Amino acid sequence: MVAALISDRLSPANCPRLIVKIGSALLVDKAGHIRREWLETVVADVAARRKAGQQVAIVSSGAIALGARVLGLPKGGRVSLEDAQAAAATGQIGLSSAWAQLLHEKGLVAAQMLVTLDDLEDRRRYLNAAATLDRLLALGVVPVINENDSVATTEIRFGDNDRLAARVGQAAAAQGVILLSDIDGLYTANPGVDPNATLVPEVRVVDARIRAMADGGSASGMGSGGMISKLEAARIAQGSGAHLAIVSGRVDHPLARFADTGIGTLFWGGAGKRGRKAWLAGRLTARGRIIVDAGAAKALRDGRSLLAAGATGVEGAFARGDVVEIVDADGHLLARGLAEYDAIDAARIIGRRSDAHADLLGYAPRSSMVHRDHLVLV
Ligand code: GLU
User: Would you write out the chain's pLDDT as a tens digit for each of its 378 residues?
Assistant: First the structure.
């Protein structure tokens, strides 16, 4: 019997909706031009998958690298935020027209979506973007997505398309994400430094041992990814039950090759959270923090709501309904959830039992500070 390949998880039969992310170093050559012939082979793979019934969205980097060449900016346009923004605005036109043309040649229709971090962190905007993606994919279109780098500032940027791809996967309710990279997958150590490093074919949980295998920075120096952001992407994908694979794009027809050989690293999705809980788990920013004692930390792990009595501190200026992080006394992140109170009222009742809340607040209190239905452990 032939053993199952990890790539089977992402085949059209098992994964009706797939996100494929392509990094700058693959898309753009050292001189700053699109690697068109290679890209044609990727598009041929996408067309084959579409034909087999798989819906595919692309997350494409390369705008900054392309624009930097056109504008003659040093260091691939990454010297300053202003350079990167100008380069992105210039390069995005060439990038999307290349995608539109190549997809058209294969009989496919391209659509462009440029999103900022805030578009996916704000629940209403996230649902809006999700609805657009869903409609495009259902219509058989191939959405080509990038971060809207020309308006994003450092504080409100994804900064790397790995996490963007995972978040887009969540928004599209995709079952799988493939990160095409300049490396075969996750290695036990940096293969450039350690000759004994070996490829890790499967990862169930991204824990401290797995994190220790990754090192920061992008091998190519062109994109901003690196293994750390890929692991972060894997965590987001797994949080919504989607599989994520890191696969080499250093070959022609990289998606077909992956399907045939199974070479890469698969992060198993398994049973993830859906809907609002998945969105919460994958969030990258929060409006504030609630610090809790050991008893409350245990109650959270047991699946209970956060009560004011177990909270010891409140930080930030959040409103009711905003996302807050729940941390222990040492500042370790325990959970993320939607605050039932704004920061001022929360500070009034911390450490106090429920029967004292009405007097402290002057109105009928809510049943908890963060309700378990609106809370995810991280
Ligand atoms: N959004 C950036 C671009 O299009 C790339 C981000 C990344 O390197 O992952 O150039």
Answer: 456 899 999 999 899 999 999 999 999 999 999 999 999 999 999 999 999 999 999 999 999 999 999 999 999 998 999 999 999 999 999 999 999 999 999 999 999 999 988 888 888 888 899 999 999 999 999 999 999 988 877 766 777 899 999 999 999 999 999 999 988 999 998 888 888 999 999 999 898 889 888 864 444 444 555 888 999 999 999 988 899 999 999 999 999 999 999 999 999 997 666 677 777 777 778 889 999 999 999 999 998 999 999 999 999 999 888 889 999 999 999 999 989 999 999 999 999 998 888 888 888 888 899 998 888 888
Do the Cβ atoms of 337 and 368 come closer than 8 Å?
no
Which residues are CB-neighbours of 164 under 8 A, at least 6 positions away?
Answer: 21, 59, 115, 145, 146, 147, 158
Sheet containing 17-22: give its strands across. Answer: 110-115, 142-147, 55-60, 17-22, 176-181, 243-248, 265-267, 202-203
The finding on whether 147 has its CB within 6 A of some atom of ligand 1 is: yes
Fold for domain 286-377? 2.30.130
Q: Which residue shows structure tokens 């398994």?
A: 270
List the domain boundaries for the chain: 3-278, 286-377
CA angle 111, 116, 121 (to 5 degrees): 115
Closest-CA residue to 240 (of 11, 12, 60, 19): 19
Q: Indicate if ligand 1 lies below 6 Å from the C-beta of 337.
A: no
Angle at 285 between CA 302 and CA 57, to 5 degrees: 100
CA distance 281 to 334: 11
Residue to substitute in 21, 64, 112 for testing ligand 1 pocket (most ligand atoms within 8 angstroms of CB) = 64
Task: Kindly state if the Cβ of 64 falls inside 6 Å of ligand 1.
Answer: yes
CA 266/CA 315 separation, integer angstroms: 38
Q: Is 326 helix (H, G, I), strand (E, B) or coil?
A: strand
Contacts of 243 (CB under 8 A, 6+ apart): 9, 10, 15, 175, 176, 177, 237, 266, 267, 268, 269
Q: What is the helix (H) or strand (E) element at residue 280, kind and residue range?
A: helix 275-281
CATH domain 3-278 topology: Carbamate kinase (3.40.1160)
